[in-house]
Design a protein that fits this description.
alpha/beta, two-stranded antiparallel ribbon, 14 helices, 9 strands, globular
Length: about 350
């Protein structure tokens, strides 16, 4: 029988305190758990929910109740920030999450800087804040995780990503100025999430990987700007989870320098080894989303038991869930964690 509420459990884990068992969560954003099975059951649908706080909050409640994840994770995409900074977004469908249709600037040399608060004043951000407020008030024992697209991923959704990645080396001064500006906008976004009741902030930065950046650029760009955002959130008294995609071998030494309260990683990463190499970080992950989508409940149970036999602190999908993931597979995942 559980001793702690979901909010108490994840809060204690992020403070490195003892708990009755590991939490099992799905933080939203890149790791969106609004699957078609849940939406069809209840009729709270996307893409309508991206622009309607009532639908967004109701869908988050549906997801939490049906899947067994021990949090509300919103928003349900990674486009709120870039759209507010000028990029065009295709809002997707029931089966497909919103995507960047066109980056607003071709180069860091052509960026037009918007005033502070550009993200928080956007209509979609207001929808997110309202949904967070509704959820935090209606079910205060279940943590709302506010999911933010990380600095480099947001930057690469505002400036043409191929050009942007080249300019990290060729236009260093302007690249740093631009990523710093993006980070300041994200700090405001995180602050409003916290003010409206988010108990944890999750930063997912899929562009910030060792495979894309290499160790030198990861150390020069990913670490300082993720830490700038993380430190600002910590000043609010709110813990931070950071998700890094891909393999970690090239950047493990840098990961140890991230200021996050927990590090979430992809299924490719050995969590036990990562904890050893990074001085006992609080780890989150990393059940394969391929397994969750294409396997069966029995295989999911075995995979979850293997994770629980290790040193993982928080159980979560390894990366973004497909909207076609069967509900029964997610329930096998969360149910196995809770049966410990």
């Amino acid at each position: 029988m559980d001793v702690l509420s979901p909010l108490e459990r994840i809060s204690r884990v992020l403070q490195k305190k003892a708990v009755d068992r590991a939490p099992v969560v799905c933080p939203g954003g890149m790791m969106n758990s609004a699957i078609v099975d849940v939406m069809d059951r209840h009729g709270h649908l996307l893409p309508a929910g991206h622009a309607d706080a009532r639908i967004m909050a109701a869908l988050a409640e549906d997801v939490q109740a049906d899947t067994g994840f021990e949090n509300f994770g919103i928003p349900f995409c990674m486009t709120v920030e870039a759209e507010a900074l000028g990029s065009e977004v295709n809002m997707g469908s029931l089966q497909c999450e919103p995507k960047i249709a066109r980056e607003v600037f071709p180069s860091v040399t052509s960026v037009e800087y918007r005033p502070a608060g550009a993200i928080v004043k956007s209509r979609r951000a207001e929808t997110v804040f309202s949904a967070i407020s509704q959820l935090s008030k209606s079910q205060p024992d279940i943590p709302v995780i506010g999911s933010i697209t990380g600095p480099l991923s947001t930057a690469a959704s505002v400036v043409d990503p191929m050009r942007f990645l080249k300019e990290l080396r060729k236009e260093k001064e302007l690249a740093h100025k631009f990523v710093s500006y993006v980070t300041d906008q994200l700090i405001d976004y995180a602050r409003y999430m916290a003010d409206n009741g988010a108990k944890v902030i999750s930063i997912a930065d899929p562009t910030a990987t060792g495979e894309i950046l290499g160790p030198k650029m990861f150390g020069e760009y990913a670490v300082p700007y993720i830490n700038k955002l993380t430190d600002a959130v910590h000043e609010l008294g709110v813990p931070v989870i950071v998700h890094i995609c891909g393999r970690m071998q090239a950047v493990t030494s840098h990961v140890a320098g991230l200021h996050a309260d927990a590090i979430s990683v992809d299924a490719l990463v050995n969590l036990n080894k990562l904890k050893e190499e990074c001085g006992g970080i609080t780890s989150m992950g990393n059940l394969s989303t391929y397994m969750l989508e294409f396997s069966n409940p029995e295989s999911v149970q075995r995979g979850t038991e293997q994770l629980l036999a290790g040193t993982v602190d928080i159980l979560a999908p390894a990366c973004g869930l497909s909207t076609s993931t069967p509900l029964e597979n997610i329930q096998a995942f969360t149910g196995t964690v809770k049966a410990v």
